[in-house]
Each structure stands twice: as C-alpha cells, then as structure tokens.
Design brief:
heterotrimer; A mainly alpha (about 400); B mainly alpha (about 160); C alpha+beta (about 240); A: about 400 residues; 14 helices; 2 strands; about 0% strand; disordered C terminus; B: mainly alpha; 3 domains
Chain lengths: ~400, ~160, ~240
C-alpha cells in the first residue's frame, strides 16, 4: 500500500493517474513537436531541414496514432470512451481534446501526408503487386490524376494545411497543458503558464526525437548524415529549449517568490520525493546538460563528428528531461494532500493494465507504427539522397 | 471546369469526410441515451436510478409508529434527540418485516463508551467518563436507562 | 421492545402502510417530490461533534461504500499555540471507529466531519468530459454510474478530496446526500445516526427550514471559500486552521 506521511484526505491516498498518464502528454508532445519541425520547411522555407520533412510528418502520425491508447487503457470503462465524441461536455478540457485530436489527425496530418505523397502513391499503385497494390489503390481514392495542374493544386492546399496545422499543433498540446493547468484544486498544476510550457517542451521533445530518428535511420541505411540539416535542427532545438527553460524557471521562481499557502508543502516535496526526478533528472540532467552541449556546438567550432555525437547526446538527454517533466507534473501533482498537510507515495506496478510493462509497450508501439509507415510510404526520395550526398 | 477536374481527388477526400460525419450522426442518434439532456448535459434517468437505492436506515419516524412506549420514556430524557438507529443500527429490514427480523440489543459496554469515554478532544460540555473507573466494571444499564440516562430516583430499571 | 403480541397486531398494519409509503417515495412529509422545490445542503455544527464515527459507519452501511474509501469521514484537528498553518490532523480509518483518547494536552481539539459539499459551482462536474456527473435541479452533485468512463478527472478536480474511483465498479463514486432518502422525506443516513445533532440536512428552498434562522444568527463558514465552489455544506464555528 502507499506510504503516507502526515495527513492525507482518506480518498487521496491512492493515486488516480498512473505512469500511463505520464506517457500521454509525452507522446502528444512528440507529435506536436515533430509537426512543427516539418512545418519549418514547408511554411518558413527553411531548406536545410528538408531531408527530415517527410520523416517528421510520419513520426508525428505514428505517435499520434499511439497517443490516445494510454488514455483509453487507463479508463475504468475503456469501451465507453466514444461517449466523449457523442456527448462532449462543453466545459471540459478533456472532452474538447477528443475533437482537437480528431481534427489534427484527419484534417491536418493525414491530409497533408496524403497530398505530399499522392504522386508516389499513384505510381506505386501501378507498379507494385499483390496486397500492397491494393493498399496503394485504396490510398489513391480512385483518382490517378497527377497532372501538373493537380499537383500544383496539391502543393497550394498542402501549404494552407500546414499553415492551419501549426496553430492546430499548438492547440493539440496546449490543450493537454490546459487539462492540468485549469485544475484550481491542485496548486502544482494550476497555472496559466502550463499550456505554454507544455507547447515549448513539446517542441523540444519532438524536434529532438526527429533529429535522433533521422540520424539513426540514415546511419542504419548506410547513408551519410546531412550535417547542414542536423546543424540547423540543433540550432532550432537550442533556441526553443532556451524559451522552454526560461518559462519553466519563471514558473518556479514565481512560485518560490509568491510562496502562497501551498508553498510549504510543495517545497518539501521538491526537496524530498521529487528531488531526484525534478532537480536532478529534469533540470540538471535533462535540461542544463543538453543546453550546455548545444550551446557549445553553437559558439565553438567543433569537428563534424564531435558535433554529431553531441547532438545525439543532447537529443537523448532532452527526451529524458521532457519525460521527467511530464512525470513530475502528473505524478508530482498527486503526491501531496490538497490539505497541504501530508504526502503519499507512488509505487509503479509491473504487469497490471496501468503498469510498467504496459507503459513500455505503448512507448515501443509508435516505433512499430513508424516502421510500417516508413515501409509503406518511404520518406526518402532519390532526389533527396543526391542532395544529401552533394551537400557533404 | 478543369480546376474541378484537377481537384477531383480533393473532393473525394472531402466526400469521405462528409460520409464519416453523416455516419457519426446516425450512430450518435442511436447510442445517445433517450433521457440525455432532459434536465441538463447528463442522462436524466440517472437521477431516478440513484434515487432507487434501497433504504437501510428506516428513520426514527418509522420506529416511533410502533414503539410508542419507548418514545414516551425517551422524549423527556437527555437522549430525546438521539435517534433510534444511532444506537440500534440500521433496521429498515425490521420495519419491512417486523415479525421475522428481530433486532439484537446492543452491548452497552461498547455502545455507551463510544460516545461517553472521556477524551480531552471532546467538547467540554459533553458528559464524559473513564469507563473503567466509573462503574467498576458493571454494565451501564445497571444504573442508567439508555433511553433516559439521567439517574433520577428510579431512573434505572 | 416491550410490545405485547396484541399491541403488535393492532399497530402493525398502520406501520406497514406508513413504511411502504416511504419506500414508494410518497411519504406524508413530501407527497409528490418536486426537484424544483428543493435546494439541498447540510449544516455541520462543529461544537456538537464528539467524534464517535456513527456517521461514517451509517454512511458505509446505507450506501455500500467500499472499504478504504469514504463518502463521509471525520477529522480530528489539534491546533497548538495558535500555529494555524500546521495543525495536526488525524482521521484513522476515516474516524469510523472513533478516535484515540487524549489526556489533557496543550492546544485545542475539535472534530470536523467532511462530506461532499454539493457545490453549486462544482469544479468536479465542470471537468467531466461526457456529462456523467452533474448537479441535479435540487442541488445534489451526482454521478451516473452507467455513463461514467472512470477517467478520474473529477477526482483530481475536487478540492476537498470527496471523490474516489470505486474499486469494483471502476467509476467515480461519491456522497449522493442519500438522494434515495431525502426524496422520500427521510434525512440522510449520517444525520439520522448522528447522536448529537452535529449534522443537519438543510433545504435552502424551504422557507420553514431552521437553517435560515441559524445562518442569520451564527458565524458560519464553508470549506476553502477561496475556491469559490459555491459549497453548500455550512460549518458552524469553523476554526481557521481547517482546510
């Protein structure tokens, strides 16, 4: 059973939201971040990140397909979840999230990917054989029109969708932040900064994830990593990371300075149970270390191989740090009593529906989705590769 | 119009959307409970269902219909406002079927001590005793009638 | 009790009729219950509470509350030397079996029974994504166990810790203010079982309810007023250290 220190209201002793709910903002964050990286190329014409454009979109889709699973799995009655669509409660952030999710999945990601791949899909539907041919045939929606003019229309529509997609991605993850930030009963969550912090940390994690995936996949395929591309991504990662860190520190300093009725309790928590996940892992290991590494790559002239290694380390640490941040928000917010008089503990179970194994499975699942998507819709074109090699 | 022709695939995609939306509306029509929205954004029938929960505490009004003799003793004493089931426990089953459900008399050693054991945490004006010192181990009802506990002359039976 | 068989035979039919009418929902007290005519709440008279735990046990009996969860519970506060920020609070098993005896000690002690505040602007019903929890037209915050997803968002949103996820039903569960009783002219199980009258069911829409006079003449507070929840459980003589 959970160990209690001090006084908890009797119904507070068991935690309601487990590791799966930690996973959920982490995964949606990766989606939003990956999409924003993709939109850099499309809307802001950052040519250097072109090699990651399609990979970023597919990554976003793979993680988006996975995103609702931890939520549904944690429900007491998973099969009642469609009620969220049938009778959404207009005052509930969670209900609105259902619609934002669907909008983002269908109207933004799927449509954008479809438009971008349409020329290839039509070609594959004619060249490939067997089941695959049928799959591609279905994906053409029965239209093989890839005339100059129709592709030009696709290009234009795709651009508009990306434009709509950026605020949609912000909304998708801002809403996740709002789900926590709007709970006035919980001082650890209740903050108007919460959605903003969530968006920027999402961008950090998404950009870091696509950067790592790009470096990893290119290496696996035996091609050369486009250093100009990763340099640019790392630069963006660095700047967004600084904004993210500033916002988080602003929130922290504000809490310390205001020191309201909840401060004693929360301060104690951060110095005891949350010391390792919050101070050590989130701030020192997951934020300051990658920030210093990225800062060095920006100001010191380092050889390519060193830069690549530093990017890989910084990216991985950033992911650890953002995961720790989600953990500290979700789990940390349930460890203290709303009476501010005591604390409980969280013990992760192993093989239950909400246990560690389920969490690991749900983390691996999007990678399997991505593998299928990459097989079905290869993100690299011959043209891309030539450019990459030429750039080296 | 050739623009429409070249954007044909987009209309197909949009068509899928419309189709899915219509399907959604049809399914929604079937699955949303009939009383949803009757009083507000919830299933109106739920109120009645919660209200249909079985009653376990009959309520002192019910007890008093039959046990008028006890009521007479009680109403002039210190326990006038202590309801029957506060001590005797939930007895709706007895009210339902008085002949076959006979309540067990509570053990005063436990029952009286629950309220009247002395503790500095209790309100000062509340009558409290240290049970071991107070009665030398004699059961409470030796001296007190639980229904009218004051020790007036002949207060206890 | 001491009824003779003859007395029983005379009394029983009348009792049976009265009792059946309670069960049928048409007791004499409230013929044809109309939701629009009531606005329920509760009065907790702190100086009267002796911490016996009768209310907690009665609630668990009446409502089949699972072990370890509480629709109502009692806390014992101990405030020393005016340090209102850090009172010592205990609630062993929700105060179900009473509290350990205290020998004379410094500071003040008092008991605080807690239950759902049946807030008019309830933060818990605000966040429910599907409309499975709501405020009824007569002011009772209720869960629809057939519609609840069990997402626990409402549990997080309640500032008072009054909700829990039912371990077997896997849905949110909470005090119904004994809706099945109050709509039939009875009081709640906790009020029925309270020996000192520390808990009183109140109907704010009933002009004859003594609550109106009480509110006018006593210093009454709700829990966590800064949360602006529109709480309808009124505490008489509530100490400032209670949260």
């Amino acid at each position: 059973m959970n160990g209690v220190e001090g006084f908890m209201y009797p119904n507070e002793i068991a935690l309601q939201w487990s590791v799966l709910i930690v996973l959920y903002p982490f995964i949606t964050g990766l989606v939003a971040g990956a999409f924003i990286l993709a939109s850099l190329e499309r809307v802001f014409q950052v040519d250097a990140v072109k090699p990651t454009y399609r990979l970023a979109l597919l990554t976003a889709l793979a993680f988006l397909l996975d995103a609702p699973l931890p939520l549904v799995l944690h429900l007491g009655h998973p099969f009642r979840s469609p009620e969220m669509y049938f009778t959404p409660h207009s005052t509930s952030a969670m209900a609105m999230f259902g619609y934002v999710y669907l909008w983002y999945l269908m109207a933004v990601l799927v449509l954008e990917i479809w438009l971008d791949y349409r020329r290839e899909i039509v070609r594959w539907s004619q060249q490939s054989k067997g089941i695959l041919r049928l799959v591609y045939k279905v994906m053409t929606l029965g239209s093989c029109n890839i005339s100059e003019r129709s592709l030009a229309i696709d290009e234009r529509v795709g651009w508009i969708i990306t434009l709509i997609g950026i605020p949609s991605a912000f909304m998708l993850h801002g809403y996740v932040g709002f789900i926590f930030g709007s709970i006035k009963a919980n001082p650890w969550w209740s903050s108007p900064l919460m959605p903003v912090v969530f968006i920027f940390s999402a961008m950090v994690s998404g950009i870091a994830a696509v950067m790592l995936l790009y470096m990893g996949l290119t290496k696996l395929r035996g091609y050369k990593i486009d250093i100009r591309c990763v340099d640019t991504i790392a630069m963006y990662l660095f700047y967004i990371f600084i904004i993210d860190f500033s916002l988080e520190m602003l929130d922290l300093i504000h809490r310390i300075y205001e020191a309201d009725e909840s401060f004693r309790s929360l301060n104690f928590l951060v110095h005891t149970q949350l010391y390792i996940p919050h101070i050590l892992i989130q701030i020192c290991l997951g934020t300051l270390t990658p920030l210093i590494l990225l800062f060095l790559t920006q100001v010191v002239k380092l050889p390519e191989i060193v830069r690549k290694r530093m990017y890989a380390i910084a990216g991985s640490l950033a992911l650890v740090g953002i995961f720790a941040m989600r953990w500290n928000v979700v789990i940390g917010g349930q460890l203290f009593s709303k009476s501010f008089l005591g604390f409980t503990t969280y013990k992760m179970t192993l093989v239950t529906r909400e246990g560690l194994l389920a969490a690991i499975a749900l983390t691996i699942l999007p990678l399997i989705f991505l593998w299928i998507l990459v097989k079905l819709l290869p993100p690299w074109t011959e043209k891309n590769e030539h450019e990459a090699i030429a750039a080296d | 119009m050739s623009v429409f022709k070249d954007a044909g695939h987009l209309f197909r995609f949009a068509g899928l959307f419309v189709l899915a939306f219509l399907l959604f509306l049809v399914i929604r029509g079937f699955v949303v409970p009939k009383t949803f929205g009757q009083y507000g954004h919830y299933r109106g029938a739920a109120i009645g269902e919660v209200g249909a929960h079985p009653i376990k505490f009959a309520g002192h009004q019910t007890c008093e219909i039959c046990h008028t003799d006890v009521l007479d003793v009680k109403k002039s004493g210190k326990h006038a406002h202590v309801n029957c089931e506060a001590c005797h426990g939930a007895l709706a089953s007895h009210a339902d079927d008085p002949a076959s459900v006979t309540p067990v008399k509570p053990d005063t050693a436990v029952l009286c001590a629950r309220c009247h054991t002395a503790s500095a945490a209790k309100p000062k004006g509340f009558p409290q005793v240290v049970p071991a010192d107070h009665s030398n181990g004699l059961p409470c009802q030796t001296c007190h009638n639980p229904h009218s506990p004051a020790m007036a002359a002949g207060g206890a039976k | 009790m001491n009824l003779s068989r003859r007395q029983m035979l005379i009394l029983l039919p009348a009792a049976a009729v009265a009792w059946k009418s309670v069960l049928a929902g048409t007791p004499e007290d409230s013929p044809n219950y109309k939701m629009s005519e009531h606005w329920w709440g509760m009065l907790i008279d702190i100086p009267k509470c002796i911490g016996c735990g009768n209310c907690v046990r009665a609630c668990q009996t009446e409502n089949d509350v699972p072990d370890g969860n509480f629709r109502t519970w009692v806390e014992r506060y101990h405030v020393t030397d005016g340090d209102m920020v850090s009172p010592q609070v205990i609630s062993p098993d929700g105060g179900k079996e009473g509290f350990p005896v205290v020998q004379e000690d410094a500071g003040k002690y008092f008991f605080v029974p807690k239950l759902c505040n049946h807030c008019a602007d309830s933060p818990c019903t605000q966040v429910c994504p599907v409309g499975a929890t709501f405020v009824t037209p007569d002011g009772v915050v209720m869960v629809d166990p057939k519609y609840c997803l069990g997402c626990a968002y409402c549990v997080q949103a309640c500032p008072y810790g009054c909700r829990y996820i039912h371990p077997e039903k896997k849905v949110a569960d909470k005090c119904t203010l004994c809706y099945h009783r109050i709509t039939k002219g009875l009081t709640t199980a906790c009020c029925e079982a309270c020996p000192t009258g520390a808990r009183q069911l109140v109907d704010l829409k009933n002009p004859k309810d003594p609550i109106h006079e009480f509110l006018k003449t006593h210093s009454v507070q709700v829990l966590k007023p800064q949360m602006a929840t529109g709480a309808k459980v009124y505490y008489n003589d509530l100490d400032g250290s209670v949260r």
